[in-house]
Amino acid sequence: MSEPFVVLRGRVECRREPCGALGLTLLGHGDAPGLVRVSFAGPAPAGLPEMLDGALVHRLSPAECSISSAGDRWVLRAASVHVHRDVGEAFYAAVPPRRAPLGKRLIWRLVLAVAGRPLGRRMLSRLRRSRQ
Prior knowledge:
The chain is of the alpha+beta class. The protein has a 7-stranded antiparallel beta sheet with strand order 6-5-4-1-2-3-7, with no helix packed on it. The chain folds into 2 domains: 6-92; 99-131, no CATH class. The protein has helices spanning 88-94, 102-115, 118-131; strands at 6-16, 24-29, 35-40, 51-61, 64-69, 72-77, 81-85. Helices cover 27% and strands 39% of the residues. β4 (51-61) and β5 form a beta hairpin.
């Protein structure tokens, strides 16, 4: 058998979709940080449990895939397979968020300080009503 094209480690959730284009979705974590979602455009195989402990996904042919986990193997017919990897954590580690400008931080600090007092809340409420 060829190398698996998706390797999921730890707990893998198997979500079945009775209607719609995608019949089965596997949710788990791969080697890189972040969630990995593998969706199959075909019905889920019989006997596939709700949770797996690790999973390997192999492409057997253009229309067939196999899922193996802990010595068990399921073959399913899938017209297509969609793999989505959550790269948000790696992206935000490489591109830190921009710090808000000093003026904006001071204005919001003032608004929150005013809103923290009963007189300030009444004043902000009147200001809001006059703008409507």
